[in-house]
Amino acid sequence: MDDKLGEVLKKVIRLANENAEFGLKLRKALNLQLSVKSFSLDEKRIEHIEKYLGLDYFVDSKTSIIDYSFIKIQEVRNLLISDNREMFRYRYGTRYHSISFAEFCRYAQLQLEMLLNYYYDQKNNGVLEDIVEHIKFYYPNAKIETAKSLIAISYSAKLYAFVNEFKIDWKQKHILEYTRWRN
What we know:
64% of the residues lie in helices and 0% in strands. The protein is mainly alpha-helical.
């Protein structure tokens, strides 16, 4: 093949790669099958489609800002990571195309409650009587004597006991409480 034909071929290939419509017509004219690899949309069109569909590869591809590697129970760790990602979907507005502070707070609170449950469960070897005693020690006003499970113990009782046990200052305590009231 001479140099001129080689150059023309390179230009046609470049045009087919740069212009999806031209590429489709060329393949049709040459009776070529369209492979997924050869079909390319420009990046802006793909971005527009992803945004329209509410796809959020941005959030899914980011490393979580909260490291849950210390959680030994895989199912609990996966739930925490999932709730953390969902929280950031609302923060960045990739879920339903709008930023929602209330939903952001709801997912933060879900993580906090899961962490409190995990803490009390691990600290007391899953023994409900020990969990109740532990919470009552740090929050004597807790009305939890009749609780049938850890989940049945109110979030407030678990939170206040935790705050007292670890001497969390009132500002941080109010932030934790306020997150719950946003829901």
